[in-house]
Amino acid sequence: MRNIIRLIQKYRNFLFFLVLELISFLFIFNWRNSFHHSTFIGASNSVTGYMYESKAAVLNYFYLSEINEELQNENQYLREQLHNQEIKIGKKFIKINDSLYLRNYKFLKVEVLNSQYKYVENSVLLNKGTTNGLKEKMGVIGVHGVIGIINKCSSYYSSVVPVINPHFVLSVVHESSSTWGDLQWLSNINNYQTATINNIPNYTPIKSGDLFVTTGSDGIFPRGIPIGKVKSFEKNIETQMMSVEISLSEDFSNTHRGFVVYNSVRDELFNYNSTK
Questions:
Q1: Which residue of 88, 177, 209, 261 is most buried, as measured by CB atoms within 10 A?
Q2: What is the pLDDT of residues 24-65, one digit of tens each?
Q3: Distance (Å, rounded) from C-alpha 164 to C-alpha 146?
Q4: Which of 227, 46, 220 lies closest to 127 in space, CA to CA?
Q5: CA 3 to chain CA mean position, Å
Q6: For 242, left (φ over 0), alpha (ψ -120 to 50), or beta?
Q7: Which residues fall within 8 angstroms of residue 48, CB to CB, at 6 or more apart?
Q8: DSSP character at residue 130
Q9: Would you list the domain boundaries of the chain?
Q10: How confident is the model over 168-196, as pLDDT tens digits?
Q11: What pLDDT was estimated at residue 93?
């Protein structure tokens, strides 16, 4: 016992330093700072990113039966064939055969290292970064629908603001009526399955099960990527607008892989929209 006490006394400064380091580490990874923490990881902490990558590798081993590599590659090909036939002019979409636009959209396969869904400000971490051509404001889609938009990139990792984050902003369209609305996620803990779409006119013929998709107007996502299906709606007589609750297409509690959307004319669209 005396030897232990002597050892502690001898190395007390070093042990005190370790305790402080542990406390700092816990503060950084505290759940209340989850969004900032994940942004920090995606932008600058390659060591922690590597830890998540190792964890994901182990988990993916157990999900191999659920996520088939061959089917995913086929989905990538079909997505490209579907969306490369459209080009945006203002808010209208036309079918084209011009070879200049046939390869408009590309889809880079990525793995999701960490997908938060239980917090107020959730974040998603990807296993690719600037060395793979990723940039801020690139869209990310999953197997079933939209995941989010990249907000930070390091050399090998990227942080994504997902749909289930109050900072996520996106215009969406009611597929059957082509009516536009604004997607909003209510920042309630554990509310990762639903979102709200506002500014839909009361006269819009909406029913339960209807699909909302991306508009394609922002240059981030192609038109037609699923957002979610109508769960319920409430009309406001005073504003003549309705609020629509949707069930999100992407399951953030079970997101393991996805695609980063690369639009070859994205910068041109951004410049055009900024001058309007």
A1: 261
A2: 655 554 444 444 555 544 444 455 555 555 555 555 555 554
A3: 11
A4: 46
A5: 54
A6: beta
A7: 41
A8: G
A9: 2-35, 40-276
A10: 999 999 999 999 999 999 877 678 999 99
A11: 44
Do residues 68 and 59 touch, judged by C-beta distance below 8 A?
no
Report the interhelical angle of 2-10 vs 12-28 (nearest 10°).
70
105 contacts 259 by C-beta, under 8 angstroms: no
User: What Å distances lie between residue 159 and 40, 54, 182, 220, CA to CA?
Assistant: 8, 17, 23, 16
pTM of this prediction exceeds 0.85: no
CB proximity list for 243: less than 8 A, separation 6 or greater: 196, 197, 198, 200, 233, 234, 236
Give the span between the Cα atoms of 221 and 91, in whole angstroms. Answer: 14
CATH class of the structural domain 40-276: mainly beta
- Alpha-carbon dihedral angle through residues 175, 179, 183, 186, given to the nearest 10 degrees: -100
> Alpha-carbon dihedral of residues 29, 33, 39, 41, nearest 10 degrees?
-10
SS3 227: strand
